[in-house]
Every structure is written in C-alpha cells, then in structure tokens.
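## Example record

The block below lists the input lines for one assembly entry, exactly as stored, with component labels intact.
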Amino acid sequence: MAKKLKTAKRTAKVSSRAAMSVAKNAGNTAKQRVAAIASAPLAVIENDKDLQAMLAVLVNADEPIEVRLAALQALQAASFSVVSFESARGDYVAALRKAATDPNKELRQRVLGILMRDKDGFAQKKLLDGLKDPGKALVPPEKALQLLSYDVHADAYEAAREIVKKPPNVVAKREALRLLAADTKAAPLFEKVLRDKKELRANRQIAASALHSIDPDKFQQYARKIVLDKSDFDDIRATSLVALQQFGDDEALGKDKALLKSVKGFSGGKTQAKYKQTAKQFLSRYKP
Amino acid sequence: MQHAAATHALPEPQFAALVDALAADPARRDELNGLLREDHSLYDQRGAATVVRMRGWVLLALARAGVSDAALIFVLEELESGLDPYLVAAAARALRSYPSPSETFAPFVMRALTNIRYRDEPISFESYGEYAVAATGTSPVRELLATLAWLGPHAAGVLDEVRLLRKQGSGLPAKFRVDIDRAIQAIRGPERSDPPAAPACCGAPATVVERTSSLPPNERCSCAPIASTLLQDHDGATITFKEFFTGQPTIVAFFYTRCDNPLKCSLTVTKLARVQASLQAQGLAERIHTAAITYDPGFDLPERLRIYGKDRGVRLGAHHRMLRAVEDDDALREYFKLGVNFIESLVNRHRIEVYILDTQGRVAVSFERIHWDEQEVVARAVEVLNEGVPTEQTGQMFPALSDS
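Predicted structure tokens for the full assembly:
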C-alpha cells in the first residue's frame, strides 16, 4: 500500500514537472500551454524556478493572453496554500501590481480583484484615482466600485455618492448604491431610493436591504407602507414582508388588521407563486 | 513654516514635505510624535490606506531622525498589533534608530514576525506613497530580521525562536536564510558558541515597561461634561453615563465591530470576557462593572453589539454592558481623549485602549496602545475599588487576588 502511494506520488510529481515544462515553452501553442497549466495548477509551487517562470509569463505582455490568464489562475490557486506559498508571496504581489496596469483589460480587472480582496493599498489608490479622473481609470467605474466595496475602510463613499448623483450608466449606479450600503450616514439616500417607484427595482431592493442594515427601525416603517401599497412591485413587497416577519414587533404585527388584510390579498390573485408562499408564511404566523 | 497642529486637510504631498522638514529640524523633531496620535486632525476624513501611507512616512522620518523615548511606544505598538506590511516594516526600521537596543524590544520584534510573515510583501521606502512593483527591495520580514540583528545579544531571550525560523518546513522561506543567519550571528556574538545571558544592565525605558498611567483621585477630571450623555446597550435599553458609570468602579474597553484587525478589537473584547470571568471568580462581578463602548455607534446597533459580545464570551447583564452613544459621541471621545479618527462615518485608525473609572465615573487608570494584561487590569480595578477604604477593612471585604 505504502509502495503504491509512493509510486503514485512520484508519478504525480513527474506529470506536474512535465506539465510545467510544456507550460513554460513558448514554442508550444497557447492551447497546449493552457491545458498543461490547467492539468497541474499547484505545480507552480513545487519549485521556485517554475514559480518564477509563471510569474514571468503573467507580467510579459508579449505572451498570449490566454496563457497569462491561465498562469494567473494557477498562481491564485497556489496562493491559497498560505504556508507553501510563503516564499513566493512577495514576488506574487509585485507581479500582480505590475499586471494591474497591463494593456489587457481582462487581466487588469482580474488582477485588481485579487489585490483588492487583500485590501492592497496600491490597487485601492489606482481604483480611486480612476474614479476621480476617468482618464486614469484602469477598469470601468462600476467595476472599480465593486472592487472598492471589498474594503469597507476604503475612501470610496464620496466617489460613490457622485456616481449616484450623475451615473455614467445604470450598473455604475447600482454598484455605487451597494458600496454606500455600509455608510451609516447614507440612510436618507436609501429612503429616497426606496420611496421612488420610478427607480429601478434592483436599486430599490438594494435600498431596502441597506436601510434594514443601517437603520432597521426606519426600514420597518417603510416596510409596512410598502406591503400595504398594492401598486408596488411584488418582489419589493415580498422583501418588506420578510423584513417585518423577521425583525418586526410580533405583538404589533398580529394586531395590525390593515396589514394582515393586505397580506391576505397579496397571498392570492396575480401574485407570483414564490411571493404567494412568502405571504402565506406570514399569515400562518400572525393570523389570529 | 506651517505648524504641525494646523494641518487639517493637508494634501498628501505637502504632508510628506512637512514630515521631512520636521525630521530635518532638531528643534522640531518632537512634533513628529504628535503626528502619530490617531486623533490628530490631520487624519480626519482620510481613508485607512491613506492613513497607512501618512503614518508610515512619519515612522520613516523617525527612523532618520532617531526614535525618542516619547515616540517609542508608537513603534512598539505597531510591532505588537500592526498587520499592515508597510507600517510594520517602517516600525521595524524606526526601532533601529532608538539610541540603544534593549532586551525588552525582542519579544515585540518576534511577535511582529509571527503576525506578518504570511502577509510579507515588497515595500518601497524611496518616496512618499510609493508601492513596490518589484520584489527586489525590502519587506517587513527583512526589516524585522535586520532589527533582530541590531538588537544583537539583547535578543538572547528569543534566540531559540530565531533559530526555529531557520528550520525547513516551519521556518521562514529559504530566501531569508542569510538574514536569519546574520541575526543569529549578531545575537550570539562573533566568538561565542553558546548564547550569552541577556544583559541585565540595559533596562528598557520607562515608556516601554510602563504600559499604564494612573491618576490620583485629586487629579482626576470630573465626568460632569458627559454625565447626561445617553448610551444604549446590547438589549436596546438606554442609560446615561452617570447612571451606569458612577457608584462603583468600571472597566471600560473601546472597540468597533467592523475592525478588521483581529489583534485589536476582537482580541480586546475577548480579553474583556476573561476579565469578567476573573471578577466573577473573585466575587467582584457585582462590585466592579465592565463596559465595552463602540467607536462606531451608527453601525453598531444593539443587535450587532449583543452578537459581537456573545461570540467572544462576554457576559451581558445590568452590570456588564456593550454600549453605543446614542448622542454626543464627540463629547464621549473628548472625555476619554480617545485615540481614534474617522473617514465619514467609519473608523480609519484607532489604538488599543482600556480605562478603569472610579466610583465617580472619572478616569483613574489608562491602558493604552500596548496589549494589557487581564489580571493586571483586575488588580488595578480592585485598587480603585479600595480607594479610601481602611486597609484592615479592605482585607476583609476583598480577599487578596489569587494567582490563578
């Protein structure tokens, strides 16, 4: 048994080495190299030479982009083995920062994502600079906001508020609202978005959950109003209903005849099946 | 020249120039220490990453100008509980500019190595705000190993730990082998085969050993300015500062639930739970209250406070509460002179701080920056409890603390 295991390990090592050999060889086709990297993603941490070779591929703009992306993926997978990756971390971070300004948009975006998940100051500064000055932007504003939201301590609220005021596109506004959901001073903004029936439903959903997080009492007031409002969207009413059920005052809800009547109406008619179910659950809990 | 105190909203390049000017002027170097206080107006409304760049630059200026006794606590604080590679590297470099090495520094350096080794990354100290894009320069681990070498025989107490860093598998990566060997060589000394005994002559300065400050009763500030400040607890109940904090001593810790440094708020609240257990074991849980007050009252609503405390074993009840200021948060900050600053509604940097309030809600003892010892906090709280009580009576009322 032990012998078999030893043989299997040796075979795996040989195949990893072979895979790395194919991956590093620029004479092979991009497809072959990508397949080789994918076949042994953790091979990059088996020896320093392979690791350095993959880092070199990652930052080399002359290499085919698909090979560079495959190298990035392998390096990222290897970085999860924190202890084994310790010796490579410095080189990896340096390579990522270099690749963050690469001409290829997809690579930039992925690299900035990896860096921001580690709350990297370099990446944060680049993203903020890009939001303030679109000429310097490495990624579209909606992506920058999404990446900045990984770090609640990033200095991004002001930029996000500007985008809510003057959104370059609907996705950017949505991401700005998502980011501001951590800002306790943004409650009035979310009240406004939640009240505005002309606002996109996705944005109102974000506003509902943000308000629930930063000012639950205020949201409870709105939730009741929304549930009572037959003209509002089903998904918004259902979200509000769930919030009332989970965080509301049980005694008061049980006595709220107008609310129960409205929920009863919501549980039938043209309401979508999944929302009818939400309403029925509510009624089974509070119906006298 | 612009005075360091009037630097609110100073653009970063000008801030860097100011720091450089202060470091270059022997008559003004002490002003650098003030720039390391978290509550300095300069850090108001800056993002956390900006604060890192700014504080790092001040630490590097200290590394050039020389770390004084007054600045030493900031350097050791960063080594002990810092997790940002740039700041830890800058602190390690700054420590080497202290006039003389001391054995008390060695545990701080080792702790920093343990905290930062899996976060090691290339660092550039070349110019303000620069981030390394090549791994050829320095790094926090490299700076810390250089600091161990600087400590030389004064690090004899941690020599075995340094040797373990050389061990294959669990030690530091091979690329640091030369730095580790240099540190070991310096600690052992050039001609010795055995580690020398730790030098007994070079005690650390008072600022290192003295992690607390106490005020005698006649020098304490009245809590009148915040007596009516309204607080809300983990259950949503409201109470004024005077109602909760007078009539008995209270151990107060500050924290916030969104703190992303596990060596700060999470650890502080966990240790507060151990303080409570100690009070309970000694029959003092009713006589000495505890409180954890959030820096972030807008976000830390009662439910978050309760869950955060429970998750860390905090005993919650009428005498032991997790609190948020419902109003007048600024007055609370001013009363305790809290080491904290904000970007919009969010904390951008804070220190570790625990206080013991006397029976009138006045600050009697402060534990700031360096990690506090739970038993010491309890012992000091008992001293505050016993203030004014005759010794014989004290012995009867509060039996001596056990070692356990």
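The two ends of chain A are 67 Å apart (CA to CA). Chain A touches chain B at residues 82-83, 86-87, 89-91, 93-94, 97-98, 119, 121-122, 124-125, 128, 151-158, 182-185, 214, 216 (CB under 8 Å).
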